Amino acid sequence: MMRKFLVTALMVALFGSMSLPVPVVAQTAGAIGSPVPFYSVDGNQIGTITINEVVDPFEEFDTYYEPQRGYHYVAIDLTVANGSQRPIEVDPYDLVMVDSDGFVSNGSSMSLNSESTATLLEYTDALAPGTEASGLVVFEAFSGTSISRILFSPNFDVTTTIADLRTEQVAAGTPVSIVGSSGSEIARVTINGVGDPFDAYDDYSAPPRGSRYVAVDVTVANLSNSTLSTSPSSFYATDDLGFLLDQPWVTTTDPGLVSFDYLDLAPGEEQRGLVYFQVLEGIPIVQIVYGDGYSRSSVVADLALGAPALAAQPTAVPVPSSPDCEGLVAWGSGLLTRLLSANALIATFEDVEPADLDPVALREASAQFETLAQETRDSNPPVAAVALNTFFADQFFEVLADATEQIAIALENNDPASAQVAIDMAETAMAAFEGEGEASVLLEQLETACPNEIDQLNNL
Questions:
Q1: How far is the C-alpha of 4 from the C-alpha of 157, rounded, in Å?
Q2: Over the stretch 238-264, which tens digit does the pLDDT of each residue have?
Q3: How far apart are CA 138 and CA 157, in angstroms?
Q4: For residue 371, what is the enclosing H or E element?
């Protein structure tokens, strides 16, 4: 993990929290013959989709479109009804099939034979209000597997389970087998517990107004003969309408809780930790899924069945990497707090036009940056972090203090050239974290010298 803690802290300070784009998964709902509502991104119902019949195997294909060896066709006969007040798009390729091994398939491009009386569902960009469109969507299915779920994913914000054909749902706490392309088990995933709401966060990573955090305690065990990459983004969760939940950046105040990390697991190894989701108040989280959502989608917990509460996780007794690293965790935590304070200052000037910047507010920010610089000088870093601490004090916080002061002066003097010089000054300080810049080199040296302490910081 290349300087994950400090680099993450810096990125939060400079650019704020960002949500990574992730593929959509589905909520638990749907049965053959039952209309299932689907929704727009603002939560309004658009219409319904009804699965009329599943034909498995489907044989009415033109011989030119034979399925590939080891596969067969499955046809889904469905009806889309527009219940909104405006035309809607109907795209057969918005339908997704998930098989019993958790592998995802998209609709196949094929033609029916001349004897078939069936009709393929056709694309339209304007299904009129109050009307319906019906037809078949055909998938290639791996022989020996069954259909698990049929999903409707018209965009990257929401998806809907049109049919859930699993024989039973998955209770949290049940180890779920993950099967590889060879058919053998490559991993086992367990949802150990759920904290809803999760309140053990610090003030700097609090949820937005109207939202709450949910913490999910997960374990992934590598049962394969090769390395297994694991990360929080291997998990996705949905609410009761099928909306994909954001994964926020959360700093916990409970030292007994460890975040799920970006780790490559050797054969036989496992990782346990918390994955966080952000949910609107009053909206339930209903399903947790393991996989990338594009090639794999394995449900690992249906939360309608309930879930154990979070329990304190076992933590190892920290072992100092060397005497020069003693105290680094406390120092690093303090640095993170100051970086988040800097982030709050920077955020006050985001989305403000240059002509509208207030010199008084800029001078107040400059004074606070100066305070952060002095607090960093006084932070008593361990020997291994002295050089990095000096950089943050003198070449980051101090430079930001000088730059904001100079911008304030330039605005008062109506001197855009001087304002640009000050902006360039701040950008030069930030460039030290790129490539082989001074800060980048110092961060890498610290990770090499104090790996145990950096791991502890990563798990804060």
A1: 28
A2: 998 888 999 999 998 888 889 999 999
A3: 24
A4: helix 359-377
Positive/negative CA dihedral, 95, 96, 97, 98: negative
Q: Are residues 197 and 278 in the same domain?
A: yes
Give the count of domains, the chain. Answer: 3
**Tell me, what DSSP letter sits at residue 255?**
T
Domain holding 276, by residue range, is 176-305
Q: Using an 8 Å Cβ cutoff, are 78 and 50 in contact?
A: yes
Residue 411 clears pLDDT 50, i.e. is over it: yes
DSSP state of 2: T
Q: Chain centroid to CA 389: how far?
A: 31
Same domain, 295 and 236: yes
Longest dimension (CA), the chain: 84
Question: What average pLDDT score do residues 60-82 get?
Answer: 92
Residues sharing a CB contact under 8 Å with residue 194, sequence separation 6 or more, in sequence order: 172, 214, 215, 216, 217, 285, 301, 303, 307, 308, 309, 310
Query: Do 134 and 194 belong together in one domain?
Result: no
Question: 357 lies in a domain?
Answer: yes
Please report whether residue 243 resides in a domain.
yes
Among candidates 35, 350, 320, 302, which has minimal Cα distance to 163? 35
Query: Does residue 13 lie within any of the structural domains?
Result: no
Closest CA to 394 of 418, 362, 370: 370
What is the CATH classification number for the domain harbouring 229? Answer: 2.60.40.1240
Per-residue confidence (pLDDT) for residue 21, from 0 to 100: 31
Task: DSSP letter for 394, please.
Answer: I
pTM of the complete model: 0.63
Q: Is residue 10 part of a domain?
A: no
